[in-house]
Specification:
single chain; mainly beta; 2 domains; 7-stranded mixed beta sheet; 6-stranded mixed beta sheet; 4 helices; 8% helix
Length: 272
Amino acid sequence: MSTFETGRRLCLLFEAGACRFAIEATAVMEVASPDADGRTLRGSLELKPLTALLSGALEPEDGPGMAVVLDVSPTLALRVRRVHEVADVARDRFFGIPPALGEALAFVSRGAILHDHKLFLELKPEAIPHQPLKRLPPRMRPVFLVDRPPDRALIFESQGVLWGVPLTMVQQVVAATQAFLPLPVPSGPVAGLFPHDQLLWPIFSAPALIGGVPAREEFFVLAELAGEAAGLCASRVYGVFGNFQSTEGRGEFTAPGLERPILVLDWQRMFS
């Protein structure tokens, strides 16, 4: 992580899909409204939806959006959802891409910029693919469940399921804010990125770790999992519980004061 101290660094800030992006203004040749069909610019330059290029999504974005033409070879004309502004980000906080997101995202992105309390993923213009990128989602992790419950655990709910994280791993629970940045991927265990306490946290979805779909929720449980800073989405946080009893299901436990069983993943093994 670093902060640019001197000079100006102008970036075009925009949205595509659910994600916010930045590109250095020196790499942008033109920003304009597309033709009525949203597929071309001035009838000759084909527009490629950025969301499709980065995620492999088959469905194009709704609405005509805006055209962003990049000064790369060959020329690349993108269709994005909305253009925010051209902003000087020289003194904005800059974060590197966390290793948990994998090499593919690091290849197309320089990092993330925190501008006006919102994160923007800065793209490398020359690295944006001209055809849909097939291997962008963060890698799926093997699923391990614990055999014995922790002495004490923070219990939270995510997508209707109660989960437990050993209290020794938990650092803090914070409310989700507008700074949260969804990832430009259709699947994978990571819901997005969140800046907090000088760090950029990858925010995982516990249900997505076992094959579900990631989704942003109202809270983030920030933890150190196998030495890795990672957050977990939570719709509700119940607090700290103990005196767990095993059920017939592996990794499933009950505790006095909880209305339902909890599921405890072997976080250390899954993140090591």
